[in-house]
Design brief:
610 residues; alpha+beta; 19% helix; 10 helices; seven-stranded mixed sheet; globular; 13-stranded mixed sheet; 38% strand
Length: 610
């Protein structure tokens, strides 16, 4: 950990203060210097380099800008957070920081976001002047997120033992005391803090190493408050109201978010959301699991197209991109001028780098393509299964950690691989409340993997209460403690290695249940069972004529696979006529007679189409 964090911290010492640097194992001006162990350690780690003349110049001062750049390295935000920070502070920094310091814009923005300094302080700070030790100490305390401790010491009237304590601003003495207690700073040979002395490279090296040591001793990991759980999503709106938005993001995922009343909303400069926003381009930020801000651009004459690329070719008119339109699935083509570049995974690229399987977002001005953006088609998405709705097609909803919902449509005749733990499973094993990982290859959903809960409960079923809102079991365990458990609508039941109907479990049965909190995800009956039902009612969802199998959603909202290979007759209840298998259609209401072989498979002897 120490090496990883130091690499972030000390990289700035090379970039900001050594214009012509080379690696050196020893420095001619370091031997016997008090900072030798600190600078030597940093050099050995490969994060600090000297000048071409073999010196390291430990007594060279650093500027306030260089110090801020250094302090920003205590944080290592990902690209999405960096972009969010830039959205919040970029304009301010560009306005008040001289362009000659543009190399430090990102780091200064990060310091503002982390609370290391305020916007008012930045306005008045002389960034190119050498920084004083007292100010550096205050900024360091803020960077280490020790301000509360410093304020508490200041309120208590902390006393410092430095010979020059009177020269330290009273408002800052608590900050100095925190760093003294942590072993990060100490007095010189005359027991002086020298608050107004200019800070040298030696002092910085010592303070950095000691700060890292202190964080490690405490086991603290610094986070960027307000951005720790922040995420930014962009895409094209497909539905919009004052309370929710649905959009296809630039990764191809269909996202829905509730819009809280306190969210910042801007639509082409106006603070409102409505159906007229559909088709606009949205940038949505979430913080700590809720929508924080929304910006929508709706421009006359500007439209967008999105879909999975199937082919890219070059013609005399430009590059022809063929893609399957995301909303309709229709095959579409568009011609892009050869002079246009593309953005692929956030990086500028040539149109020749566009490949089949990438997800495309194209911006049009009138009929002409003006912007081409694409992302790679291979990725994984994680979340919690919120619902599975069976139909033609089926619909899977997955909630994400940032408070949104992802919606996927699934073709029951061509499902992705579904895994329950390490085992292959059917769609009926997608249990509400379970954690799932969705894997995409070449832009297509190839696998849904459900994470198994390791929480189990064994006991006797003492009560079963079924209502329109669900089914609740009371289960008494071996310690005579009673548990109230809700049976998930997608829960599966087994007995002696065979799938059984959940309804076959009765009061008095001994069970072992896999649970997530108070929800039963899977149940094993440890006493006798039978499958006595000989008929099935439900809605036809899909017909597989090759294998003679019907997929039926029964009245309990469970998928049943009906074997019709030996069916005697298929009758139309209204006309009394015999039907062929090919005449059956999705959404037909069926009544089948036969036998269950397990809870999900039924062998039909006759079928009536109602």
């Amino acid at each position: 950990m120490k090496k990883r964090v130091l690499s972030l911290l000390l990289a700035v010492l090379v970039a900001a203060s050594l214009p012509t640097a080379v690696l050196a194992a020893e420095y001619t001006d370091l031997e016997g210097h008090w900072s030798e162990p600190y600078i030597t350690e940093l050099t050995d780690l490969g994060y600090l380099t000297g000048y071409t003349d073999g010196t390291v110049r430990p007594d060279r001062t650093i500027t306030a800008c260089e110090a801020l750049t250094l302090l920003s390295r205590f944080y290592s935000p990902d690209d999405a957070v960096v972009e969010l920070v830039h959205d919040d502070y970029g304009e301010f920094v560009e306005t008040y920081v001289d362009p000659s310091l543009s190399w430090a814009y990102d780091e200064i923005e990060l310091c503002l976001a982390a609370g290391i300094l305020s916007q008012n302080e930045l306005r008045s700070l002389r960034l190119t002047a050498a920084i004083e030790k007292e100010l550096l100490a205050v900024l360091l305390v803020r960077a280490l997120q020790l301000t509360d401790e410093a304020d508490a010491l200041n309120d208590a009237g902390v006393e410092l033992s430095f010979a020059d304590t009177d020269e330290i601003a009273s408002a800052y003495r608590g900050h100095i005391a925190v760093l003294v207690d942590a072993g990060i700073i100490e007095g010189n040979s005359r027991n002086e803090f020298t608050p107004h002395a200019e800070v040298t490279r030696a002092v910085v090296a010592a303070m950095v190493v000691r700060s890292i040591d202190h964080l490690e001793e405490l086991g603290h990991s610094l986070v960027l408050n307000g951005y720790t759980d922040a995420a930014l999503h962009e895409g094209v709106l497909t539905a919009c109201s004052s309370s929710s938005v649905t959009f296809r993001d630039t990764d191809g995922l269909l996202r829905t978010y509730a819009v809280p009343d306190d969210a910042s909303v801007t639509v082409s400069g106006v603070s409102r959301l409505g159906s007229d926003c559909v088709g606009g381009f949205i940038s949505l930020r979430t913080v700590d699991g809720a929508v924080d801000s929304i910006s929508v651009q709706v421009r006359s004459g500007t439209t967008y197209a999105q879909g999975r690329i199937t082919d890219v070719s070059r013609t005399s008119a430009g590059y022809v991109i063929r893609f399957d339109e995301a909303e309709t699935g229709d095959s579409t083509r568009t011609t892009v001028p050869t002079a246009l570049s593309a953005s692929i995974d956030g990086e500028t690229a040539d149109l020749t780098d566009l490949k089949a399987g990438m997800f495309l977002t194209a911006t049009y001005s009138g009929s002409e393509v003006t912007v081409v953006s694409a992302v790679s088609g291979d990725r994984t998405v994680t979340g919690t299964i919120a619902s599975v709705t069976y139909g033609a097609p089926a619909e899977l909803n997955v909630t994400t950690d940032d408070g949104g919902s992802l919606r996927f449509t699934l073709d029951l005749t061509d499902l992705p691989t579904i895994r329950w733990g390490d085992n292959a499973a059917g769609i009926d094993r997608l249990t509400v409340g379970s954690s799932a990982t969705l894997t995409f290859e070449n832009g297509l959903l190839e696998e849904i993997s459900v994470e198994l809960s390791d929480e189990t409960l064994e006991g006797i079923v003492t009560s079963i209460v079924a209502t329109t809102g669900g089914t609740t079991w009371l289960v008494t365990d071996s310690a005579n403690e009673t548990h109230s458990l809700t049976v998930s609508s997608s829960a599966n039941a087994y007995y002696d290695g065979t799938s059984i109907l959940i309804s076959s479990i009765q009061v008095g049965d001994t069970i072992r249940a896999v649970v997530d909190g108070s929800t039963i995800l899977e149940v094993y009956r440890l006493s006798g069972s039978s499958l006595s039902d000989n008929k099935l009612s439900g809605t036809l969802l899909a017909v597989d004529e090759d294998d003679d199998v019907l997929t039926v959603l029964n009245t309990s909202n469970r998928l049943i696979y009906v074997d019709v290979s030996d069916v005697g007759a298929i009758l139309n209840a209204e006309t009394g006529k015999t039907l062929k298998l090919s005449a059956l259609e999705a959404n037909d209401q069926l009544l089948a007679y036969g036998t269950y072989t397990d809870a999900s498979n039924f062998v039909a002897s006759s079928i009536i189409v109602e």
